[in-house]
Design a protein that fits this description.
The complex is a heterodimer. By secondary structure, chain A is an alpha/beta fold. Chain A is built from 18 helices and 27 strands. Chain A starts with a helix and ends with a helix. By secondary structure, chain B is mainly alpha-helical. Chain B is built from 7 helices and 4 strands. In chain B, strands 1-2 form a two-stranded antiparallel ribbon. A two-stranded antiparallel sheet of chain B has the order 3-4. In chain B, β1 (2-7) and β2 form a beta hairpin. In chain B, α4 (95-114) runs antiparallel to α5 (118-142), α5 runs antiparallel to α6 (144-162) and α6 (144-162) packs antiparallel against α7. Chain B starts with a strand and ends with a helix. The model of chain B is unreliable at 1-17 and 41-70 (pLDDT under 50). Classes of the chains: A alpha/beta, B mainly alpha.
Chain lengths: 427, 190
C-alpha cells in the first residue's frame, strides 16, 4: 500500500511538472488559425500552428496554393519551393533558409508534425512575392497574390510584391526609408542633393532620377523597376510613358503624407510598419494636444515663405498646414477670407495677409546665391512688417524648410511635430 | 619727411626719406616710433576687442555668466573658439542622458531669451557647455559631422550671449539649430 501511494505520488508529481512545462504558445495554439489566399479559406491535413509568434503551415499545401512547385529530400529533410525565378529552400529543424541561394535566418525553424513538414507561412509567402498580413481578431493569416490600386488615371495591378521600386516624389522617398524599402531609383531632393541629409544614410546605392517636377524617364526605364510610385500633382504628363515601363501607382496628393504612407505600405507589403507608425503618430498628436499651453492652444498660425521673385506666399494648404490643422490650430481669418489655398502676397501693402499669432517662415534659398534672403530682409525690415501682431509679440520664426515643406514625408512630419515642442516651450 | 600710410585702419610709419631730418630726430623719432606703434597696435585690436570688452563690462549677465564669457578663448576676431575652461563636464550616466538634458536646456534657453531673462539665459548657456563637455567625445565617435555642427553652433551661441546687444533672432536661430542637432544625435543613439 505504501508502495502504491509512493508511485501514485510520483505520477501526480510528474504530471504536474509536465503541465507546468507546456509552453503558453500551446494554449494559444488551441485557438484555430485560419489562412486565406485571395479571400479563399485554405484547408490543411495538418492544422497550422504558431511557434515563436510565427504561423507554420504544411509546406506543400502553401507552395502549391501560391502557384509554386515543390520537392522534398527525405535524406536531408529539405523542402524546395520554386515559383518563377524564385527558389526557397527550408530544412527541418534549421533556422537557416535560402532564397535564391542566399542564406537568411528564420524566426522559427520548420518542424515535422505527423510526418508533415510545417514551414513559416509569412516567410514563404513573402519570399514568393505574396502580400501577407495577420488579422488578429479573426486569427487569420491573409495572403494576396495580387493587389490593385485605383487612381486618377485608372487602376494599377501588381502581381507580386515589388522589389525594384522607383519613387518620384520627395515625400515618397521619406516614406520608403521609414518602411525599410530602399528604392533602386528616386528623385533628387530640392536642397542638400542628392538626398536630404536626414534620409541620406538610408539611400546609399539609390540612383538619382532628376527633379521631382521633371524625372528622367530614360533613367527610370534603365532601372527596370517592378513598380513606379508617382503623384498626380507632378506626373500627369508623363504617366503614360511611366506606365509602359512598369506598373505605376499614382498618389492623389503630394502633401498628404498619411495617405501616401497608406498607399505605399499597401503596395510594398509593409502595412505592419505603417500601422505602428500611425499608432505612434496619433499618440503623439494626442499627447501634444494635452500638453499644449493654454496660451498657445487654438491660436492662428501663419505659414509663409518669400518667393524667389520677391513676392510672398501664405499657405492655406500643404504639408505644414495639414499638420497644424490636425493639432487643432486655426488659420488666420484674413487668409481664410481670400478663399485661396496658396495666397500670393504681391506687395508690402498686403503685408497683413502674412500675420498670425505665430508666423512660421520656411523661405528657401533655392539657388544658393542669397537673392531670396535679400528679398526676405526687405519684407522683414519694412515698417508694416514690424506692425504685425506675430512680429510685435516676438512670435516670428524661421524654420527648417526641408522638414516643414520640401520633403513632405512621414519622418519629416515627426521632425516638425518635435520642433513645435521647441517653439511652444513644451516639455 | 615722414611718410605715414594707412594700412588696414592702422597708421604705420614705413620710412623717413630726408637724411638730415633723420639724423636730427633719430633719438626722438625712435621714441615717437615706439609710441605710435604702441598706439597703432592698440587701435587695430580695438575694433573687435572693444566689443569683447563691452561684452565683459557692459553685459547685464550674472557674474558667473560674465566670467565664463571672459574666460572663453577668443581668436583675433573676437569669436569664441573654445569653451570656458572653468566649466566642468556635467556628471551624467551616459550620452543618452546628456542629450536629454541638453535638449531641455536648449528649450529653456529659448524661453529665457524671449522673456529677456539674461541671467537665466547665460546660466543655461553654461549648462549647455557643461553637458556638451560630458558627451562631446561620444558624439564625435558616433557622427563627427553632427558633432562639429553642434559644437560650432554652441560656440556661436556663446559668442552671441557674450554681446551686450542681443540679437534675439540670431540667438533663437542658433538655439533651434542646436535643438535639431541634438535630436539627430538622440536618434543615432537609439
Amino acid at each position: 500500500m505504501k508502495f502504491l501511494k509512493q508511485r501514485l505520488f510520483l505520477l501526480v508529481l510528474c504530471l504536474t511538472v509536465a503541465a507546468a512545462l507546456v509552453p503558453v504558445s500551446a494554449s494559444a495554439a488551441s485557438k484555430e488559425i485560419s489562412v486565406t489566399i485571395d479571400g479563399k479559406k485554405q484547408t490543411y491535413t495538418v492544422k497550422p500552428r504558431v511557434s515563436n509568434g510565427r504561423t507554420l503551415v504544411p509546406y506543400r499545401a502553401i507552395a502549391e496554393a501560391l502557384g509554386g512547385k515543390v520537392s522534398y529530400d527525405a535524406a536531408t529533410k529539405k523542402a524546395t519551393i520554386t515559383k518563377g525565378s524564385e527558389k526557397v529552400e527550408l530544412t527541418q529543424g534549421s533556422r537557416t533558409a535560402r532564397i535564391n541561394g542566399t542564406a537568411v535566418t528564420l524566426d522559427t525553424a520548420p518542424v515535422n508534425v505527423s510526418g508533415t513538414l510545417l514551414v513559416p507561412l509569412r516567410f514563404v509567402g513573402e519570399s514568393l512575392g505574396v502580400w501577407v498580413n495577420w488579422n488578429n481578431a479573426a486569427s487569420t493569416a491573409v495572403l494576396e497574390t495580387k493587389r490593385s490600386f485605383k487612381h486618377a488615371w485608372g487602376t494599377t495591378t501588381l502581381n507580386s510584391v515589388p522589389k525594384r521600386v522607383v519613387v518620384l516624389f520627395n515625400g515618397g522617398v521619406d516614406i520608403s526609408v521609414l518602411l525599410g524599402v530602399k528604392p533602386v531609383g528616386a528623385v533628387e531632393s530640392y536642397l542638400q542633393k542628392p538626398f536630404y541629409e536626414y534620409l541620406r544614410s538610408s539611400l546609399i546605392g539609390t540612383k538619382t532620377l532628376g527633379d521631382e517636377t521633371q524625372p528622367n524617364v530614360e533613367a527610370i526605364a534603365a532601372l527596370k523597376p517592378d513598380v513606379i510610385i508617382a503623384t498626380e500633382w507632378r506626373h500627369e504628363k508623363i504617366y503614360a510613358q511611366l506606365n509602359k515601363i512598369a506598373p505605376t501607382i499614382v498618389t492623389p496628393d503630394l502633401a498628404d503624407w498619411q495617405d501616401n504612407l497608406d498607399i505605399m505600405s499597401r503596395a510594398l507589403n509593409k502595412e505592419d510598419k505603417a500601422n505602428a507608425f500611425m499608432t505612434d503618430w496619433k499618440n503623439q498628436v494626442a499627447a501634444f494636444k494635452r500638453k499644449v499651453p493654454a496660451s498657445v492652444k487654438g491660436k492662428e498660425i501663419s505659414i509663409i515663405r518669400i518667393n524667389p521673385n520677391g513676392t510672398a506666399r501664405a499657405y492655406n494648404e500643404g504639408f505644414a498646414y495639414k499638420i497644424f490643422k490636425e493639432l487643432g490650430f486655426a488659420t488666420p481669418k484674413q487668409q481664410t477670407a481670400t478663399g485661396q489655398p496658396l495666397i500670393n502676397v504681391a506687395s508690402y501693402e498686403q503685408m497683413s495677409l502674412l500675420d498670425g499669432d505665430f508666423i512660421f517662415d520656411f523661405t528657401t534659398d533655392w539657388d544658393g546665391d542669397g537673392a531670396v534672403l535679400q528679398h526676405q530682409k526687405g519684407w522683414t525690415s519694412h515698417d508694416l512688417w514690424k506692425n504685425l501682431k506675430g512680429v510685435k509679440n516676438n512670435k516670428y520664426y524661421k524654420v527648417n524648410a526641408v522638414t516643414w515643406n520640401l520633403s513632405g514625408g512621414a519622418l519629416a512630419a515627426k521632425h516638425m511635430l518635435d520642433d513645435l515642442y521647441f517653439y511652444f516651450g513644451m516639455e | 619727411m615722414i611718410i605715414i600710410n594707412k594700412v588696414r585702419g592702422c597708421f604705420v610709419i614705413p620710412c623717413i626719406k630726408n637724411l638730415k631730418t633723420r639724423s636730427k630726430l633719430s633719438a626722438v623719432s625712435l621714441w615717437l616710433l615706439i609710441a605710435l606703434t604702441t598706439f597703432a597696435l592698440a587701435g587695430c585690436g580695438s575694433a573687435e576687442g572693444i566689443s569683447g570688452a563691452r561684452g565683459m563690462d557692459g553685459g547685464v549677465g550674472s557674474g558667473q555668466g560674465e566670467a565664463s564669457q571672459e574666460e572663453a578663448k577668443k581668436d583675433g576676431s573676437g569669436d569664441i573658439t573654445g569653451f570656458p575652461e572653468h566649466i566642468e563636464a556635467a556628471a551624467i550616466a551616459d550620452a543618452a542622458e546628456g542629450l536629454d538634458l541638453l535638449s531641455e536646456a536648449v528649450k529653456s534657453f529659448k524661453t529665457a531669451v524671449e522673456n529677456d531673462e539674461r541671467d537665466q539665459a547665460a546660466q543655461l548657456a553654461d549648462e549647455m557647455v557643461s553637458l556638451w563637455k560630458s558627451i562631446a567625445a561620444d558624439t564625435a565617435e558616433k557622427d563627427a559631422k553632427r558633432h562639429d555642427q553642434l559644437e560650432g553652433d554652441l560656440l556661436r551661441l556663446l559668442g552671441e550671449v557674450a554681446k551686450s546687444d542681443w540679437d534675439k533672432t540670431r540667438l533663437i536661430d542658433l538655439d533651434y539649430s542646436l535643438y535639431q542637432g541634438v535630436r539627430d544625435l538622440k536618434q543615432l543613439l537609439n
